[in-house]
Design a protein that fits this description.
With 503 residues, the chain is of the alpha+beta class. It has helices spanning 3-26, 30-43, 47-64, 67-86, 91-101, 107-115, 132-138, 141-144, 148-165, 289-294, 305-315, 321-335, 343-348, 353-360, 365-378, 416-419, 430-439, and strands at residues 119-122, 125-128, 181-195, 205-212, 221-228, 233-235, 244-251, 259-273, 337-338, 362-363, 383-390, 397-406, 410-414, 443-444, 448-452, 477-479, 494-500. The chain folds into 4 domains: 3-86, no CATH class; 91-143; 144-171 and 277-452, C8orf32 fold (Roll), CATH 3.10.620.30; 186-271 and 460-500.
């Protein structure tokens, strides 16, 4: 065979192989093509198209009988939906929102505010966090002072805690370094679902994790009064864990009427007032579980090199952990602005809260607490971020604060975001503001409800889908394979009421 013939034969062979490969590729299942396209769009932040393709891929995998891949697609669609839900404003809508909230500002001033608002590229355009207007007020005191509702809220809060904050020691509340737990308050709580039957799928298992109180030195008593209907309960609540929940499985094919779940409970919460002598702080056992667990960089509480360097700068030459923690507290209170956070998006994109705060210089109660925790951990001080609710009468809401550990004393509470309220209260003298801020380092009011002792804790049993806000389980977590939308939508049918019992 001459050279020309050999070349022709080789060409034909290569062509045949390429054609065969093309047929194999084109024969790839439709479901896989849809998933690959969804993944590509997701990586490029085209979340709307990504969500659509994940949903199509999910249906295709179900037709193929591949439930595992269908579940993966469902989670992809849910994660994309969460970002779209949180970054809900395009530029036109954002400008309209600012025009409605800041009529007293010029268009140029509003545009300058908007330039500093939280935004990201979504679907090829700049999209803004839905809470940018209230955040502009939080981060600009002059704007906040022009909002009578916000000022009423802060003034009301102060009026309800000032007697605790400024209380001098007396026979009822003695200043005792050996007894930091005083002023107990017992609470009656009810958490319940009432979901209309038509809102639920016809079949499948509806799974619910309901958060409940944990037991700690400052929250020592927890009692279940009733659980109805008990036949749905699959995992009992356990207050001895670091995070507590009751787990239910409801077979929907047997459910004829509305889904009703109700738990009644009691718990007691103490005010914490620590009197600490820095000279009496002991040495850390660096081989102990507390030190190892609560000085590590992990999850939402990441210790980046930049955070570690900031911690070193704050501590300076100081070696006493109590004094270092106080310096970190002052730094966060004075230098980190309060602001609502894109918690959902941070979780979906697997960023850490501590790093977000460090880079942006603002954060809400949880984010500030995680940043305080990261700075303490970087300094070799065990610390954690405690979550649940603050129960100031008439002003109850979800809340986070922090704790750091001192040998010979235990876990010491700090609440940076509540301390910052003093900056908004112009009626207070400089000394009153100082005393108010000082109270929330080492002391904390009894209007609290702790659900989790730290972030990044796992529910029992472990869910197969990520929670709405990773690390924060203040609301129920819900899963149902047969429900194709966001299960967070069912939260409109959940309510919780926790009230202090009369003494």
């Amino acid at each position: 065979m001459n050279k020309t013939g050999k070349f022709s034969l080789l060409f034909i062979l290569v062509f045949f192989l390429l054609a065969s490969y093309a047929q194999i590729v084109s024969a790839a299942p439709h479901s896989e093509k849809l998933l690959n396209r969804a993944d590509d769009l997701y990586v490029r932040a085209y979340y709307s198209e990504s969500k659509t393709n994940y949903e199509r891929a999910m249906r295709a995998f179900k037709r193929d009988g591949n439930e595992e891949m269908a579940h993966k697609c469902k989670i992809g669609a849910m994660q994309a939906s969460k970002i779209l839900m949180e970054y809900s404003l395009n530029e036109k809508a954002a400008k309209k929102l600012f025009a409605e909230n800041f009529k007293y500002l010029s268009e140029t001033e509003r545009n300058n505010l908007l330039a500093n608002a939280e935004s990201m590229i979504v679907d090829g355009e700049k999209r803004y966090l839905g809470e940018i207007a209230v955040n502009a007020k939080y981060r600009n005191l002059n704007l906040m002072l022009k909002d009578p509702e916000m000022m009423r809220k802060y003034t009301s809060f102060f009026e309800k805690v000032k007697d605790i904050v400024y209380r001098d020691a007396d026979s009822n509340y003695p200043a005792d370094a050996n007894q930091p737990f005083i002023n107990p308050v017992t609470y009656s709580g009810v958490t319940e679902f009432n979901i209309p039957r038509k809102k639920l799928p016809e079949n499948g298992i509806f799974k619910v994790w309901l958060p409940l109180p944990v037991i700690s030195a400052s929250q020592p008593d927890f009692k279940i009064v009733s659980i109805t209907p008990s036949e749905y309960l699959k995992a009992l609540p356990n207050g001895d864990r670091d995070i507590n929940n009751a787990y239910f499985e409801i077979p929907l094919d047997k459910l004829k009427d509305a889904l009703k779940i109700k738990i009644e409970f009691l718990y007691t919460r103490y005010e914490q007032r620590f009197i600490i002598d820095p000279k009496l702080v002991g040495e850390y056992n660096k081989n102990g579980n507390i030190y190892k667990e609560y000085t590590r960089s992990y999850g939402l509480t990441e210790i980046t090199p930049e955070i570690a360097e900031t911690s070193r700068q704050i501590a300076g030459s100081e070696k006493n952990p109590y004094i270092i923690a106080k310096k970190i507290y002052d730094y966060v209170v004075n230098d980190i602005k309060y602001s609502h956070m894109p918690h959902v998006t941070i979780g979906v994109l697997k960023h850490s809260e501590s790093d977000y705060v460090h880079k942006n210089r603002f954060g809400d109660c949880g984010a500030q607490s995680m940043y305080f925790t990261a700075l303490c951990r970087a300094a070799g001080i065990p610390a954690r971020t405690t979550g649940g609710y603050q129960l100031i009468p008439g002003l109850a809401g979800s809340h986070f604060w922090a704790e750091f550990y001192l040998p010979n004393y235990g876990w010491i509470p700090v609440d940076t975001s509540i301390a910052q309220i003093a900056d908004c209260l112009l009626q207070l003298t400089a000394e009153q503001k100082r005393r108010y801020r000082e109270y929330f380092f080492g002391n904390i009011d009894p209007y609290r409800y702790v659900i989790q002792k730290d972030v990044d804790l796992e529910l029992t049993p472990m869910p197969s889908e990520p929670p709405l806000i990773p690390g924060a389980i203040q609301m129920p977590h819900i899963e149902c394979a047969e429900h194709n939308g966001l299960t967070v939508d069912f939260l409109e049918f959940w309510k919780q009421n926790i009230i202090p019992l009369a003494k």
